[in-house]
Design goal:
346 residues, homodimer
């Protein structure tokens, strides 16, 4: 993710896509088993980024739990992300945003800067879990991608297989860790990138324009062929069956059972707005800003000097401009396949 | 604090000063009342900075609690600091430092980026508290300091009075918030800057050299008189009686009673090393690096452009060089008055 609040500012695609999952989370908060006694109710936001897109779902969950548990029961909200996440932006957002959930005097915030592919919290301590636009990020890049930055558009069968194996392993690791952390009766809602019934990852014009933009930067000798070859986004779209696989044999995995699992198409708000106003430049700029905030820093990390490469900022700017211009030339609807799940701990 | 790991690298003064308080904390961990049941034991580190100086005390406390509570009882460590603290450095330190306390599979870390002058955690949820080199930072600058950057060396009685009032108010606010958060029987160890029986704040040659260095930067027209006037470090040294004041009437305050309260002199390791090796340059450089990491960013925030002022980095460098050179010219022992307290919740 790009830090400095960029992800907070340019994540409207994610914000639109998560709305159907917020309804699942609200329902989970209304039905989840509440532990007796006065111990805090713990809500965990797995993969929070800078927090802006967490305020609506977490606020909804806090309101539902608050109504059930009364005004004095403590609710602890824990946001997790990788150590290099911009936690300053997260804490400022939660402290100061008018939409914050932190206003009833009995709700508290904390953060954990560690990978969620391991156990992050004490066993049986979590009441309600939420993870949005996060588990599509693999724990590691399993292989270079020879002909694209997103494996879904690679023609290399071996690479696609390596990513599929890593995706299956990471999904089980994520579920196993959550299964340990969740209280009996706890609920977890997951929203993640998916592939549709035709195994289409979506975003096709965007990814093709991004790769073409990178090839332009190479032709202009701004980046080298080696650098382009190293660039890869370690994300995957999972199918309905990929997501269901751990549960197929026993009906549950790590104590978790899926109560809801659905692949759906998110609304493409950027194209909808273009259909309304015909502004092709704004169309291109919006998708380019989305891409910059969510994946350009990952690509730029493959520059020879890594994150301290002198070209880092210019790389972000030039690729954003190239992408905006290519997309503005031919605005089109983008397929955005997502999956939403509700998992219940026995 | 300076981010990017600078505080972690240049805080040996603080590391030496906290050793006597670590002994208090270990004793507190061995004696503190442990809640029955399986709920996590919560250790809070109030004002963690980037975490390096927390590893020894928190590791000591975790070991003591672990021995008493058994291998599977969850221990949650919570580090708090202001929102703009470098939490990435904190999480990397806790994850990767060879001295980390995070290695038994039942100990967990999280962080809170909010001011500790308010309640940060659920009521009666904290087992053991630790705060080192932190509560000397006031919640706000109560007044400009007309003739120094550190109020202890100001000759302006009104300014000194305004700081004293704020210091008393903040100390009560800190205690009141901790009193709410701590479990019955919980213990809190505090190490903070103090003044000795003669009300001497210490660091006299350092603060005089720092102010002279700033006056040089003004004479060289690198900073303006207005900027120098705005520069102030919002820290205070409290006396034994200042720290005892909230408890004097009733013997307790916010449910907390002092079981130990002592002002002492920390070892001046920088001067000791100079006495051993006679290296005046290293003497000056060490105190300058300490000052840069702990207070220069606070001074630099008073530049016309604030933290994004184009002179920010050069200001840190020039002031560090000026301070190092002045101190190297006349190495001398530095008085370092500190206070350590053990507070017990009824």
């Amino acid at each position: 993710m790009e830090g400095g609040g960029a992800y907070n500012r340019s994540s409207r695609v994610q914000a639109a896509g998560l709305l159907p999952a917020v309804a699942l989370l609200e329902d989970a908060a209304l039905k989840v088993r509440l532990t007796a006694g006065s111990a805090p109710l713990v809500i965990v936001d797995y993969g929070s980024s800078e927090g802006r897109n967490s305020l609506l779902p977490i606020g909804t969950a806090v309101s539902a739990l608050r109504a059930r548990a009364g005004p004095t029961r403590a609710i602890s909200v824990v946001h997790t992300d990788l150590p290099d996440n911009d936690f300053a932006a997260l804490f400022r957002t939660v402290e100061s945003d008018p939409e914050t959930y932190l206003r009833d005097g009995a709700t508290f915030v904390s953060a954990i800067g560690r990978s969620f592919y391991q156990q992050l919290l004490p066993a049986e301590s979590v009441t309600l879990g939420w993870s949005s636009w996060a588990v599509q990020w693999l724990s590691r890049l399993p292989a270079p991608i020879p002909d694209q930055v997103q494996v879904a558009f690679s023609k290399d069968a071996g690479t696609r297989e390596a990513f599929a194996r890593q995706a299956a392993e990471d999904w089980r690791a994520f579920l196993a860790a959550r299964g340990r952390e969740m209280c009996p009766g706890a609920r977890l809602v997951v929203l993640t990138m998916a592939v549709d019934e035709a195994r289409d990852f979506g975003y096709r014009p965007l990814l093709h324009a991004m790769y073409a933009g990178l090839e332009d930067l190479m032709a202009e000798r701004f980046i080298t062929a080696d650098e382009l070859h190293r660039m890869a986004i370690p994300t995957v779209g999972r199918s309905h069956d990929d997501l269901a696989a751990p549960f197929v044999n026993a009906g549950s995995f790590a104590g978790l059972s899926p109560s809801h699992l659905e692949v759906f198409q998110a609304e493409d708000r950027i194209f909808n707005r273009f259909e309304g106003d015909g502004d092709a430049q704004a169309f291109g700029a919006s998708w380019a800003a989305f891409s910059r905030a969510s994946v350009f820093p990952t690509l730029a990390a493959a520059l020879g000097g890594g994150r301290s490469d002198a070209r880092f900022d210019e790389f972000l700017q030039r690729l954003e401009a190239a992408l905006a211009s290519r997309l503005a030339a031919a605005p089109t609807h983008m397929s955005i396949p997502l999956a939403k799940l509700l998992l219940i701990k026995a």
